[in-house]
Amino acid sequence: MPAAMAFFAPYVNSYRRLVRHSGAPINIRWGRDNRTVGIRVPRSNPEARRVENRVIGADANPYVATAVTLACGYLGMTQKIEPTEESSGSAYSSQRELPRSLSDALQNLSASPELAAVLGQRFVTVYRLVKELEYDEFMKVISSWEREHLLLHV
């Protein structure tokens, strides 16, 4: 799933929410009714049972995010990836497994030919190139924080 983060958190600012003790996941652990994990199985009766991908941000395209989530599940099944142990306590004490920036997410996406094969190589290539251009444009801007804290010190 780290290879899919460029789809789940598609903008530079998307990664600001992915910090410990914020209510947002920082890893892809799973748990029952646990809001600190990336994959949550909410408390419910068997007829209403579902799985939530809590890694997806509100700024992600819901259609793309759904397709990518299904692709990740498909790859997990075809590659016979065993699930981790259930996380019953706070998953914030676990190691960070998700990228911390769009740049890292794009590198993970580039390193996953399996995900590109399922989603379509052309789609993934175009998406990655657009996001790289957006990231490069963002990096050209000097923020007010940088002006305030670094201008007189660098």
Question: How would a textbook summarize the main sheet?
Answer: 3 strands, mixed
CATH class, please?
Alpha Beta
- Taking all Cα atoms into account, the compactness measure Rg is 17 Å
Q: How many β-strands, per DSSP?
A: 3
Number of H/I helices: 6
Indicate how many domains the architecture comprises.
1
| N-to-C SSE string, H for helix and E for strand | HEEEHHHHH
CATH topology: Creatine Kinase, Chain A, domain 2
Looking at the overall shape, the CATH architecture is 2-Layer Sandwich
Major sheet: order of its strands? Answer: 1-2-3
Strand content: 5-15%
Shape: globular
Low-confidence stretches at least 5 residues in length (pLDDT < 50)? none
CATH homologous group name = Glutamine synthetase/guanido kinase, catalytic domain
Termini separation: 38 Å
Level of helix content? Answer: 40-55%
